[in-house]
Task: structure prediction
Amino acid sequence: MTNPHGPADRGEETDGPVLRIATRSSPLALWQATHVAGLLATAWPGVGVEVVPVDTEGDRRLDVPISSFGGKGVFAKEVQAAVLDGRADLAVHSAKDLPAVTVEGLRLAAVPLRGDTRDALVGATLDALAPGATVATGSQRRRAQLRALRPDLDFVELRGNMATRLTRIPSGGAIVVAAVALERLGLADRITEVLPVERMVPQVAQGALAVECRADDVAVGAMVRVIEHAESRRRVDAERAFLAELGGDCDLPAGAHALLGGDPLTGPLTLTGVLADSGDPGARLVTGTEVGTDPVVVGASLARRLRQELAEP
Result:
């Protein structure tokens, strides 16, 4: 945490401490960081907030699938490095881009109120797609589930920021994106169909933001903790525990979605998960549900059960 004499990110002069937020430089990532900056500024009047954009390998290498050079963790590691080496005090990520195992030296300090968890189609509804139509998505999870629903569809890769993706809707086909991304960018009117979670299980932690800080930074951790949303955190913890048990790679053909009943701190969690061999034609896919109160136990238990079911002949 610094105390410079210049203006904070919000354009206001401040003589107090300044929190530096590392983030990817895409429009959506900057929206996320600015959103968290606003939450912190409201919670801590007099504290300035500065957004520190970071160029990541995932944003630079748009010509190849993410899985070919390290999975979705490539979107997070350089942002995390900025916190670890002191260029920033905290990092804001799309929680679905974080590997489920936290990097040594960091901690997940807060999960603010979660947004829409669902996937969306742009271009056509799923049922309106003609036989053999093309769907663009870079997600193995989405491909596996869509193949189970519509084995006739053809799939192509999709990379780039949201503006780029919206220019790549196949003729007569559709692209698949997170509904919340379009909502946050003011592009919700582009959504053709939102897929219910009962039809397509979302990516782990989709719709949630993750705020990381250094593990030993007690002061920043305490400041960030006030923007935590208890229900969102427990749901995300259960989903991340599911992914961690499977190996922690966000690019696995796996998804999970948790619902919470009753008290945000003690109520029962219902976790639904999906796991596939791959996104290829004919890949096996299994689904299941686990109920309990401990997010880590619920997530890990469901992952073990689905992995065992997938391994059975």
Notes: Residues 1-112+208-228 form a domain with the D-Maltodextrin-Binding Protein; domain 2 fold (CATH 3.40.190.10).
